[in-house]
Specification:
By secondary structure, the chain is α/β, with parallel strands linked by helices. 51% of the residues lie in helices and 12% in strands. The protein binds NADP nicotinamide-adenine-dinucleotide phosphate.
Length: 316
């Protein structure tokens, strides 16, 4: 293990992301000392048993003296948590997050972040449908993209801090990329947010049909539907906040999606097999590109075996 990038880091919010971060630091380095805090007393108690680090009773106490502070809480809580810890942040500290929406996250944190702190928002493109401290695992970030959305700045100290944060995530095995926050939100609207919305919707429709079809929907839920149920099991608080804070990009993407869906609907209605074949062939090409980019395997069943160990699948 090489020299840690940070002497001391604070992780605030110890659910799937926060616990995984603590496990990854323990496994791969990146930081010497870890302090922890979660607003939920039950999560604190569970994390104290499962996660290596010094647990504090307040966010401010955990953040005090840290070289880098990682906010691993739902996007809607980022602004108030920044305000809460602001007085404790040391000169030159890095403040970052793992939130799935970047424009609103950056604005909310910037509003409360003191000038002497380097605010560098971020988002690991890695996740699962599980939540809570028990869901965390050390390899979540390995070989996954980590997108940083730095604030506009020509301060060399800010550039050095961004470089340091990149090296930290690389030490945990991530591939780091920088991007403008609005671009991040547009890209994630189609690759992550819309698929989750569709999953929630299809499962809800199936739930309504379940009573009509007398249990046959769940019974025959292999095939595509099972994958949707996995995605739709994701944390409701986290996803509520994603849709509320990335509203414009999601609505824009949803509009285009609805038009394309209407075209497929028309092709089915008029028996236009050529149109259906053309669209399905195009989609198959995109699937091939995902495999070639190393983001999934070519195995049947979307590369996931029943009861397989969790692995990063870029959920959020
Ligand atoms: P999680 O498992 O539900 O954990 C979040 C934890 O933060 C909960 O214990 C929650 O407590 C706590 N919390 C809420 N507000 C807090 C506050 N003000 N101060 C301290 N702790 C607070 O959620 P997660 O899946 O780790 O997600 C965390 C963040 O990562 C979200 O912003 C999400 O968008 C992002 N993300 C998630 C994924 C994914 O696949 N899950 C992937 C990439 C990024 P309560 O339960 O009491 O609210």
């Amino acid at each position: 293990m090489s020299q840690p990038v940070f002497q001391r880091v604070a992780i605030l919010g110890i659910g799937l992301l926060g616990a995984s971060l603590a496990h990854a630091i323990r496994a791969y380095g990146g930081a010497g000392e870890v302090t922890l805090y979660d607003a939920d007393p039950e999560a604190r108690a569970q994390a104290a048993r499962l996660v290596q680090g010094h647990m504090f009773e307040t966010a401010r106490a955990a953040a005090e003296g840290a070289d880098a502070v990682f906010l691993c809480v739902p996007v809607g809580a980022l602004g108030s948590l920044t305000a809460e810890i602001a007085p404790a942040l040391k000169d030159g500290a890095i403040l970052t997050d793992v939130g799935s929406v970047k424009q609103r996250a950056s604005e909310d944190m910037a509003h409360a972040c003191p000038d002497h702190v380097h605010l560098i928002p971020g988002h690991p493109i890695a996740g699962t449908e599980k939540s809570g401290p028990g869901a965390g695992f050390a390899d979540l970030f390995r070989d996954a993209w980590h997108i940083l959305t730095p604030m506009p700045s020509d301060d060399p100290a800010y550039a050095a801090a961004t470089d340091r944060l990149s090296r930290f995530w690389q030490a945990l095995g991530a591939r780091v990329e920088t991007m403008a926050p609005d671009r991040h939100d547009r890209v994630l609207a189609i690759t992550s947010h819309l698929p989750h919305l569709i999953a929630y919707n299809i499962v809800s429709t199936a739930y309504d049909m379940e009573s009509v079809e007398q249990g046959e929907v769940v019974k025959y839920s292999a095939g595509g539907f099972r994958d949707f149920t996995r995605i739709a099991a994701s944390d409701p608080t986290m996803w509520r906040d994603v849709f509320l804070t990335n509203r414009d990009a999601v609505l824009e993407t949803l509009g285009r999606f609805s038009e394309d869906l209407a075209a497929l609907q028309r092709a089915i209605r008029w028996g236009d097999g050529d149109a259906l074949f053309r669209e399905f062939s195009r989609a198959r090409g995109i699937r091939q590109a995902v495999i070639e980019a190393g983001l999934d395997t070519d195995e049947a069943d979307f590369g996931r075996r029943a009861l397989a160990a969790p692995k990063p699948d870029g959920d959020a």
